[in-house]
Amino acid sequence: MPTGRVKWFSLEKGFGFISSDEGEDVYLSASALPDGVTTLKPGTKLEFGIAEGRRGPQALSIRVVEAPPSISGSRGNTEDLAILIEESIKMLDRVGNNLRHGRAPNEAEASRVAKVLRGIAGQIEGTN
Questions:
Q1: Which of 9, 11, 27, 100 could hold 87 in an S-S bridge, CB 3.0 to 4.6 Å?
Q2: Cα–Cα distance between 45 and 86 in angstroms, integer?
């Protein structure tokens, strides 16, 4: 399986890119994240399958191989969780605004929102 590192990932946008070890940029959808993983930091080493998408290579079957080193201990984890919650609020605000205008989320977006919320809930429970 190919490997690479997360170039960037936006929870709000629902996607990001991996810089593969072969030097190729690979599209990374939030729906491809493994269960329990809601976001990825730049530099995270991944193993993944590749399929040809509409706009080029797309990552499938993501597996986190190695997280980037953390400078601080548990405080860093709470800071990461705070950032994740703030990004989720933006995502939920967008969904709420669409609902106010009679536009329900499509199946893929609804699934992504649910996955993110389950992941955050699990992380919050783990910080006690």
A1: 11
A2: 24
